Amino acid sequence: ETFSLQLIPVVNSTCGDPPNEFCLRTYSLATKQISSEDCSYICNSSSDDTSHNPELMTDFFSELQPPTWWQSESGIHRPQSVSIDIALSTKVQVQTVLFQFLSLKPDAFYILRSTDFGESYQP
After folding, report:
1. Would you call 35 helix, strand, or coil by DSSP?
2. b vs e for 84-111, b when ≥16 Cβ sit within 10 Å of the residue's Cβ?
3. What are the tens digits of pLDDT across the range 22-35?
4. What confidence tens digit (pLDDT) does each residue in 69-90 have?
5. In terms of DSSP bridges, do strands 84-85 and 10-11 run parallel, antiparallel, or are they unpaired?
6. Nearest partner of 97 among 67, 52, 58, 68, judged by Cα
């Protein structure tokens, strides 16, 4: 059973408050460089048309058009990181975890779990 539509992730970074521009970048594996960059996007968390809030991260199976996505703030670099917490209030068996990135993938990506309500995490 897919229950992604019922989850609301908690994140520590979301674009659009205050409204700001952001870029979508693509990367060429052949040249190992950014191959295109489109910085014409606006993020405004108070507008339905241009918000990219966390709840839009789990509407993958939605029929919404145009497609929606969550967008972190631009310009976040190490050692600062973006975290996404999804609370599963009951035990679940996870068969598939699907991530679809609209722009460049992050430098590192970890999936951790907590069995003590977020007090500690382990891979």
Report:
1. strand
2. eeeeeeeeeeeeeeeeeeebeeeeeeee
3. 888 888 888 888 88
4. 888 887 766 557 888 888 877 7
5. antiparallel
6. 58
